[in-house]
């Protein structure tokens, strides 16, 4: 696929972080699928969230409108702001003209402005996070739903109740819950605890008021910290204040304060949580197997109490009537401090939210603008073992996918491979390159360079040749020169992959024995290849380069390149 796709995600409204986090989770998978498909995905966010740092952290471009919260705080006239905001959305969408426009939670938009803007988008999708019945049954809410090409409900079909008009039911898909990270992307317990400075045997409690934008967040966090510290002295309190938090920061020996994006990657360090039950917080905790003590916040469109009751009924959480009930909180915290009780609750939590469906939502959205076969190929290729390897090596997923394409090109470029085999080989190559000190960019270029010179080789043969070459190049420690050397090779018509690998190994071994670096090898090979149509093949050129190296070693004034 060569044609690009322009996608605009609308995350405007609300004092929380749920709509933005959910859209980011989906956009991350869209970007991964586009990488596999070889398509240029131009992704923009329109947002009013004051946590736009999350988008920068996740490497997404955004256009920012002041939030309703800051407009009120700054004393800006609301009618002036409303007119400006509507025009800003209309003009932004009109200039971008997206292939796909994705809206979360509020189908009319935060200002009722989307009715006249949807026609500017080729395809429109609505992420219908279930809201309370009073809000969902409003006539203006229901009237907008049939105008979208696709409605995604990020809940299991039996768990979330989405009120739908007849005209929208055939366009609706239930995906299951959407979260920011897959389980394999979370840091292992020991690594997460090391980053947070928590001892191996210390009890760790996650305390959060959601995204931090709730007006009572400071009071809720302070009361919770006091209650937990009193009930469980010596425990580590990890306060995930959220990027929207504007209250006072708490200090103390047992407090670890977090308000930067990406904090959910540290959930593996946590024994249990005390927090609100917003969509993202709830699902991220349950998915990570972190039992919770929930105090539901009251929101205009959210049903936090229903979620918390569901977790409590499953044995994964305790439910507080309100966060100020210090005695009830202390009793629940003491129960979850017991390892056996906590293990049962953790198992119940993982069972309650067994899977992250962000990738499924991304695939459904892309089917609106791509051929179904292209989407299915990307789904099959982008598996958890790729994500796990990327996390293990602290690398983006890009080099793994690029090596996959090198090993298993499209049929027109060479023999195709089973996606699972190509994926495993790519992981092995990138892992081996990292182990040998090669930057991921160099590993991709070396794999690409060698594979392109082996047009008749199978993907497995290419992978073995690349692995062998990385081992031979590693002692030199100069990966820039290594890439240059491989570029000198010609497409191979006579030798198979193993034979060419053997010739390269012999040449590199000779270089090492004579104490020469790879740039000396580049000069020797370039000289041995000569010019014109009668230039020798790779085997003859490499052997001639070895001969010249030996002559130069015996007689520095002999003919040939002077390393």
Explain what this protein looks like in three dimensions.
The chain is of the alpha/beta class and 563 residues long. It has helices at 18-37, 53-57, 68-73, 78-96, 133-136, 139-144, 166-169, 189-196, 217-231, 279-288, 304-313, 326-337, 339-352, 358-366, 372-381, 384-393, 398-407, 419-435, 440-452, 459-473, 479-487, 497-513, 518-529, 538-554; strands at 5-11, 41-47, 61-64, 100-104, 123-127, 150-153, 172-174, 204-208, 236-240, 255-258, 272-275, 292-294, 317-319. Helix 20 packs parallel to helix 22 and helix 21 (479-487) runs parallel beside helix 23.
Brief summary:
This protein has 563 residues and is α/β, with parallel strands linked by helices. The protein is 48% helix and 10% strand.
């Amino acid at each position: 696929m060569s044609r690009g796709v322009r996608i605009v995600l609308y995350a405007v409204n609300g004092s929380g972080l749920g709509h933005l986090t959910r859209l980011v989770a989906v956009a991350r998978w869209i970007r991964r699928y586009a990488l596999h498909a070889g398509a240029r995905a131009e992704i923009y966010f329109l947002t009013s969230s004051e946590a736009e740092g999350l988008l920068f952290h996740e490497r997404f471009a955004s256009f920012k409108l002041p939030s309703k919260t800051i407009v009120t705080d700054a004393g800006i006239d609301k009618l002036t702001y409303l007119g400006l905001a509507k025009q800003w959305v209309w003009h932004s969408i009109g200039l971008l003209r997206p292939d796909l426009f994705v809206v979360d939670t509020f189908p009319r938009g935060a200002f009722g402005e989307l009715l006249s803007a949807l026609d500017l988008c080729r395809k429109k999708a609505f992420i219908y996070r279930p809201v309370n019945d009073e809000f969902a049954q409003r006539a203006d809410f229901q009237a907008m739903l049939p105008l979208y090409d696709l409605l995604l409900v990020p809940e299991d079909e039996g768990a979330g109740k989405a009120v739908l008009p007849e005209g929208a039911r055939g366009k609706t898909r239930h995906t299951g819950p959407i979260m920011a990270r897959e389980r394999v992307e979370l840091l292992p317990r020991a690594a997460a605890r090391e980053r947070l400075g928590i001892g191996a045997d210390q009890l760790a409690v996650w305390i959060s008021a959601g995204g931090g934008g709730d007006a009572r967040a400071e009071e809720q966090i302070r009361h919770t910290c006091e209650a937990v510290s009193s009930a469980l002295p010596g425990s580590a309190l990890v306060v995930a204040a959220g990027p929207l938090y504007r209250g006072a920061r708490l200090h103390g020996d047992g407090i670890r304060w977090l308000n930067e994006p990406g904090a959910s990657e540290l959930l593996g360090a946590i024994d249990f949580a005390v927090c609100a039950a917003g969509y993202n917080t709830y699902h991220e905790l349950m998915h990570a197997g972190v039992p919770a003590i929930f105090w539901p916040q009251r929101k205009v469109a959210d049903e936090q109490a229903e979620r918390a009751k569901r977790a409590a009924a499953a044995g994964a959480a305790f439910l507080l009537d309100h966060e100020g009930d210090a005695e009830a909180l202390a009793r629940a915290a003491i129960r979850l401090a017991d390892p056996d009780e906590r293990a049962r609750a953790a198992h119940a939590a993982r069972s309650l939210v067994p899977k992250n469906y962000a990738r499924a939502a991304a695939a459904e959205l892309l089917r609106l603008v791509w051929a179904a076969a292209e989407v299915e190929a990307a789904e099959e290729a982008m598996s958890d073992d790729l994500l796990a390897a990327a996390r293990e090596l602290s690398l983006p997923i890009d080099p793994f996918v690029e090596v996959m394409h090198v090993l298993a090109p499209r049929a027109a470029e060479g023999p195709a491979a089973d996606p699972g085999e190509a994926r495993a080989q790519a992981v092995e190559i990138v892992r081996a390159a990292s182990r040998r000190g090669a930057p991921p960019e160099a590993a991709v270029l070396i794999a690409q360079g060698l594979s392109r010179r082996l047009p008749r080789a199978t993907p497995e043969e290419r992978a073995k040749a690349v692995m062998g070459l990385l081992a031979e190049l590693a002692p030199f420690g100069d990966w820039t020169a290594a890439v240059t050397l491989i570029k000198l090779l010609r497409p191979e018509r006579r030798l198979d992959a193993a034979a060419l690998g053997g010739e390269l190994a012999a040449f590199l071994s000779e270089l090492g024995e004579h104490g020469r670096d790879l740039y000396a090898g580049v000069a020797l090979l370039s000289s041995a290849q000569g010019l014109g149509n009668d230039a020798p093949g790779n085997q003859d050129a490499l052997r001639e380069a070895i001969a010249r190296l030996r002559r130069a070693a015996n007689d520095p004034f002999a003919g040939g390149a002077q390393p």
